[in-house]
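dude i think i finally got it to work??
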Amino acid sequence: MSVITIYDKDLVEQHPTAIKVYQFDFDADNLPAAVTITSAPTAVAVLRGPNTIPAVVDQVSIVTGNRKTQFRLSAGTEGTTYRVTVTPVTSETPAQTKPKYVDILIQT
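look at this
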């Protein structure tokens, strides 16, 4: 399985019939040493365009020493941009949240 590393506020394109796995790397970007991600609530919203076939975000997981998050996106309406927001919670005391998002344009 191929995983696509994305960065906060990226815009990526995906074919309407594609199913892709995306990954945010908090290890390389703003997570202090010895801190891990304990949970990663993920949400998808329509940013612009029609939404006759909603995008599906599933298989959300925390990977690689609990310092990266992954999600799988499928479906979606052509011409629609979806915003997928991941809001990981850290193991720090007190815990912090470090939200990141990616915009995904569905098009052929």
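DSSP finds no helices and ten strands in the chain.
im so relieved honestly
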